[in-house]
């Protein structure tokens, strides 16, 4: 069915508007993966302070707008000469560690499988399904077999990497771009969207900082919008 549809399309590069949309999607996933994949560095926090207003599609989502305001509030102690204050940096680092790393029981476990079973066990069937999706594109996490593949940061990174692949295919007129879009659509529906709302509620209810509450609102708001963006690209 898909092959037949592709055969009817004209083999030509995508227009500037389409490529711009893909670039915006890649930018959004890049920001989100950096936010949830690792502890906040000074450089990252300064960058967020300077650029959070530019997060894509903010006018289309109350969640994103609400998140941006919360992030700005959290980072308003910026000193242009030295960057984010030490107190703010340490507060955000502790908030990230307490929620996502431990050593105590995590209030917002950042793994899909933790939300798929009552015991919150990791490396379950959900993890293997995510790994299978990664391997199709030879996407291998740096800490393979040490960090569960279904970590929120890794799942967002995968969507980011697929955006980069998609951009090059559409720019060159490679019709296999449709398969990449279908894989993004499936991954979003079968993985990220099945648990991010619950993860987001855990973060919002337990975070000690407006920063992570805000970034989580941006995350949930953006993923809902990205479904529509993918459908629009598939309709081209």
From TrEMBL:
InterPro entries: DMSO/NO3_reduct_chaperone (IPR020945), TorD-like_sf (IPR036411), TorD/DmsD_chaperones (IPR050289). The keyword Chaperone applies. Keywords: Chaperone. Gene3D superfamilies: TorD-like. The keyword Cytoplasm does not apply. It holds the Pfam family Nitrate_red_del. PANTHER family: CHAPERONE PROTEIN YCDY, DIMETHYL SULFOXIDE REDUCTASE CHAPERONE-RELATED. This is Chaperone TorD involved in molybdoenzyme TorA maturation.
């Amino acid at each position: 069915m898909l092959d037949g549809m592709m055969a009817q399309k004209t083999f030509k590069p995508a227009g500037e508007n389409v490529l711009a949309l893909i670039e915006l999607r890649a930018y959004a996933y890049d920001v989100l993966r950096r936010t949830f994949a690792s502890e906040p560095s000074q450089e990252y926090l300064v960058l967020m302070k300077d650029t959070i207003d530019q997060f894509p599609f903010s006018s289309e989502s109350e969640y994103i707008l609400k998140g941006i305001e919360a992030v700005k509030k959290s980072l308003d102690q910026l000193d242009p000469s030295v960057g984010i204050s030490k107190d703010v940096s340490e507060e955000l680092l502790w908030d990230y560690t307490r929620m996502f790393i431990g050593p105590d029981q995590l209030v917002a476990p950042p793994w899909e499988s933790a939300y798929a079973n009552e015991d919150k066990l990791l490396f379950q069937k959900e993890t293997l399904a995510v790994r299978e999706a990664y391997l199709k594109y030879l996407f291998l996490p740096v800490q393979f077999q040490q960090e569960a593949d279904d970590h929120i940061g890794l799942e967002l990174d995968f969507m980011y990497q697929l955006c980069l692949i998609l951009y090059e295919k559409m720019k060159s007129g490679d019709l296999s771009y449709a398969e990449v879009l279908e894989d993004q659509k499936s991954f979003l529906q079968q993985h990220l969207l099945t648990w991010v709302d619950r993860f987001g509620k855990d973060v919002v209810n337990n975070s000690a900082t407006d920063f992570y509450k805000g970034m989580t609102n941006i995350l949930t708001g953006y993923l809902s919008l990205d479904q529509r963006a993918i459908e629009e690209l598939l309709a081209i």
